[in-house]
Write a structure and sequence with these properties.
heterodimer; A: alpha+beta; Alpha-Beta Plaits; two-stranded antiparallel ribbon; 3 helices; B: alpha+beta; Aldehyde Ferredoxin Oxidoreductase Protein, subunit A, domain 2; Aldehyde Ferredoxin Oxidoreductase Protein, subunit A, domain 3; 3 domains; 25 helices; 19 strands
């Protein structure tokens, strides 16, 4: 399967501004509660940042544990959420070993990146890039 | 100002009583509707909460943190305003800091946090959304390094990536009146001694986290306007200066201009300026760049200083130290330190102990000149021979200032106003309104700005910039200088009510701000905003006058008249005339 996804080009360039998180959240609302990407320091900002970004797994652990079939394979890797089927059990969040299933406290449902690439446009330092698409260059700051 | 948003968490004011260990939330729509947020709301809270003539170290002195409507919604809106009564000047205390502070407060669901009372034992506060915890800080009180305190709190508190960790160092614990509150290790509520007010309340740290949505009136229009601001911030040249070399870029131009205060302002050009310039630090030391939350600029420049251990071969340590123009001026040029490693080592000590770099540098500069002129001797300095450029001795003197082994260092730790009133040397004690001078000797606007600015800071009215922009063919008049400074400072009250970073003033232009407020549901006009700015500035002066400020009593250090600026020598009569006019302007309709 050819994966189509947002990937980290170089995490060392990350300045920790979190503009990607705000961008992602703007697609569904405002603030930070709807962000499906995370940035935190490694443990002291001087050591750099951890970018928590869905890897668009070919065989996603989150999908395997979903008891209602609410998570469906996404073309290009990873999953899509069918909200009507989701009961908010939270198994998917526990299953993701890299913490990429974020939780929407207001809707009590998971939030998982669908690799739309919107965040890339708001990364001022080229930390993120699109992979696996012919028009990947379109996704730049 | 009319606001349609009933549900904006901005209206929530969290009140904390450290004495009784209680907290409560009040909706203060009244305050935020009247004045947006930030400093304009903060000044009103200060009027409500700070009793007249209160001792800054008494439990009654409130600490007020305020954010505004743009925080969390627009880029470059990354600042939190803190208001308190300053232990350094005994008057209005106001300080701004970035890091993640404003986003964390907004995402936790508050517009302001008011901390009152004092704890009997060391505590730190943890605010996670609507939960507030009073945690025992006995185990972290007295820790030598501010960095360590941050490291511990990072481990024991939740909310990584979504929080601010404000803390004080030994400077704040020991009530040094120019101690800072450090946030996210590299940003500071730097000036006027908020750290000491924390210390007086036995408040070691304040952790705040949250993750929420914010209401906007028109989401599509909001996204469109967001992009307008984003483009200005990232693509235009408005932020370039802060982007590349950071504020340290100013060292060389100011030195060439002859406006870089050097060796306690005996000179205005430093022959080793190049060695401590933004260019040199970037070439030799820049190890990482960081940004405040929601700011794409990344102006925070961190130097990596690699040093071998003397007693252990092939063991090295790498210390990460954030530098800016102001610390370079105060701990570099002002002390004649032209060795970048030496400057960084001294700055690292200042950071470790949580002191204001600017006040510290000016205090040590005064001590050096006083020592050289013989008004203090080795008995006072405890054997230290202070001399320009000798950073190792400065580090020892700084340690004495912190630990205060004798009366001299106890006085020195109170700032140049106090120490010079005891030992003499007032002519070269470089403080304005008791606050040590910033790093610009650019002309009359800078100096008048330090005198009349509500915080006695270069950032109040940006006189240094006015000096450089003043038309060459136009003579300065006291009236015009004061009017220009007033106009700029009044507009900055609007910026710090939103609350945006002053570095973004080129982006948040007066004609754009009402449009941005509009999509959030706040209806206003440019002229209403300008009026708001003037009103806020005057209310600050009302507070200052209540607390004993007087234009007539302002001391003008002789040194600023003796050392020429790029605009020539300043005359006291000119400055006094400006003060008379400022008094008229600021005190009318109060």
């Amino acid at each position: 399967m050819k994966r189509v996804r947002v990937v980290i080009s170089d995490s060392e360039k990350c300045v920790g501004c979190q503009c990607c998180m705000f961008a992602c959240a703007r697609l569904k609302g405002t603030g930070l509660s709807k962000a499906r990407i995370g940035v935190r320091s490694v443990g002291g900002m001087e050591r750099g940042f951890v970018i928590i970004l869905c890897r668009a797994c070919e065989d996603p652990p989150c999908l395997k544990v979903c008891p209602t079939g609410a998570l469906e394979p996404r073309k290009g890797g990873g999953v899509r959420l069918r909200e009507d089927k989701c009961i908010g059990c939270g198994y998917c969040q526990k299953a993701c070993p890299i913490g990429c299933v974020f939780w929407d406290e207001e809707a009590n449902k998971p939030m998982i990146c669908v690799h739309c690439g919107y965040c890339i446009k708001y990364c001022p330092h080229g930390v993120l890039k699109m992979e696996g698409r012919q028009d990947a260059e379109r996704f730049t700051t | 100002m009319q606001n349609d948003l009933q549900l904006d968490p901005l209206y929530n004011v969290l009140y904390v009583d450290l004495t009784k260990k209680r907290f409560w939330v009040r909706k203060r729509k009244d305050l935020f509707e009247d004045g947006l947020g930030g400093v304009s709301v903060g000044v009103k809270l200060l009027e409500e909460e700070c009793p007249p003539q209160v001792d800054p170290f008494s439990p009654e002195n409130p600490i007020i943190f305020v954010v505004g409507p743009f925080n969390g919604l627009f880029p470059l809106a990354s600042k939190t305003v803190a208001l308190f009564k300053s232990p350094h000047t005994g008057n209005l205390g106001e300080s701004h800091a970035g890091g993640r502070s404003s986003i964390a407060i907004r995402m936790a669901g508050y517009g302001a946090i008011v901390i009152k009372g004092a704890s009997d034992a060391p505590v730190y506060l943890a605010v996670h959304g609507d939960k507030v915890f009073f945690r025992d800080a006995g185990a972290i009180w007295g820790i030598e390094s501010c960095y360590t305190v941050g490291r511990i709190l990072r481990e024991v508190e939740p909310g990584s990536g979504m929080r601010t960790i404000m803390r004080i160092g030994l400077g704040g614990e020991k009530l040094i009146p120019f101690a800072t509150v450090v946030t996210e290790t590299y940003r500071h509520f730097g000036r006027l001694g908020l750290g000491a007010v924390f210390g007086s309340k036995k408040l070691k740290a304040l952790v705040i986290s949250g993750r929420r949505s914010l209401p906007v009136a028109d989401r599509l229009a909001y996204r469109k306007l967001y992009d307008v601001v984003w483009k200005e911030a990232v693509v235009s040249s408005a932020m370039k200066k802060y982007h590349d070399l950071g504020t340290a870029e100013n060292v060389m131009p100011l030195n060439e201009l002859g406006g870089l205060p050097t060796r306690n302002l005996l000179e205005t050009r430093f022959e080793k300026a190049r060695e401590i310039s933004g260019e040199r630090l970037a070439e030799g030391f820049l190890g990482r760049r960081l940004a405040c939350a929601h700011c794409p600029t990344g102006c925070i420049h961190i130097a990596a200083l690699r040093e071998p251990y003397e007693d252990k071969p092939f063991f090295y340590k790498t210390t990460m130290i954030s530098y800016d123009y102001e610390p370079i001026y105060a701990l570099g040029a002002m002390l004649g330190i032209g060795n970048p490693e030496g400057f960084l080592k001294l700055l690292d000590r200042v950071e470790t102990w949580g002191l204001d770099a600017m006040s510290t540098g000016v205090v040590l500069a005064w001590a050096t000149e006083a020592f050289q002129k013989g008004i203090i001797g080795e008995q006072e300095t405890m054997g230290l021979k202070l001399s320009w450029g000798d950073y190792l001795t400065y580090i020892k003197a700084l340690e004495n200032l912190l630990r205060q082994p004798n009366d001299f260092y106890r006085h020195l730790a109170q700032g140049v106003e106090v120490v010079s009133s005891v030992y003499g040397g007032q002519d070269y004690a470089l403080a304005f309104g008791k606050n040590e001078m910033p790093g610009y000797h650019t002309g009359p606007c800078a100096v008048i700005g330090y005198l009349i600015g509500s915080r006695h800071s270069h950032l109040d009215g940006a006189g240094y910039s006015l000096d450089q922009k003043w038309p060459k063919d136009k003579a300065f008049t006291p009236k015009e200088v004061v009017e220009e400074l007033f106009k700029e400072e009044a507009w900055r009250q609007v910026l710090s009510s939103l609350v945006v970073c002053f570095f973004a003033r080129g982006v948040y232009k007066p004609e754009l701000v009402p449009e941005l407020l509009g999509v959030l549901g706040i209806k206003t006009t440019t002229s209403q905003l300008i009026e708001l700015g003037k009103k806020v500035l005057k209310s600050k002066y009302k507070f200052k006058l209540r607390e004993g400020f007087s234009f007539e009593a302002l001391r003008i250090p002789k040194r600023v008249l003796e050392t020429p600026t790029p605009h020539g020598w300043l005359e006291e009569a000119f400055l006094r005339e400006a003060l008379r006019y400022a008094k008229k302007l600021y005190e009318e309709d109060l």
